[in-house]
Amino acid sequence: NFIEFCKDTGLQSSNATIRNATIKLIGEVHKFIGPDIKGFLTDVKPALLGALDAESMRKILLRKTVKASESTLSMSAGGLDGLPREDISGKITPTFLNNLSSPDWKIRLESIDLVNKILEEANKRIQPTGTTELFGALRGRLYDSNKNLVMATLVVVGGVASAMGPMVEKSSKVYKEYYHVLKCLSDNKKHMRECTINTLDSWVAAVHLDKMVTTAIPRLVFEGQKDLFDWLTKQISGISDSSKALHLLKPSTSALTVYRLLDFLASLLEHPCA
């Protein structure tokens, strides 16, 4: 209600002073809530949205310390920001789930697009209720004969994970779905592999990297390892705690060929904690 008031009254005011005060107020809220607030501002005019982004960035920089910034992001990722999450289970009907596996590819595509619409209507913040069934239905589309539908599904799976945040772990089949996402890296089309990496980025923003690595990666032996471990090296290189980085070595290397293993370890030796 507070955000809607700012949008409808403050940002729509003909008085520039009121608009500027509203921008500063939203920037102050962003400082404590984090980037999740942007999901409620998608209908704001581009010019105002640019001003909001600039103000939010200024507030973040004013905090100066990395620790304060990490605390803000952690609070946002942890769902402690107080922003509501919508229960979408009522929209995941049996008919909708059946349409995801329809013989008609157009109906399958419409159903995939409908998931995006549901996420948009929920301001990209949803509860885990009903998502186990949704993930299960989307799994089949990751093996769709229509490659465009597979890529569309990858985008949706990443979007669902982002919208759930850390609560994605409450879905009992979440890591099974993650495994099926990884299998898409074996595709010989570069665009498909890039789309898969984007989905992994969405997941790692919501789920702890160590759980992703220890659950699924040891089971993988497939073409496309290079893309996966280039991504994994990038993720591990961003970990400041060397003990946490070392914790990921065993499960990561278990799926590597000798060549990939040597290449992977060489990359890790460039890590500042090495």
TrEMBL record:
TM ranges: none
GO biological process: establishment or maintenance of microtubule cytoskeleton polarity; microtubule polymerization; spindle organization
Entry-linked SMART domains: TOG
Residues annotated as domain TOG: 81-274
GO molecular function annotations of the record: microtubule plus end polymerase; microtubule plus-end binding
InterPro entries: ARM-like (IPR011989), ARM-type_fold (IPR016024), TOG (IPR034085), XMAP215 (IPR045110)
Protein name listed in UniProt: TOG domain-containing protein
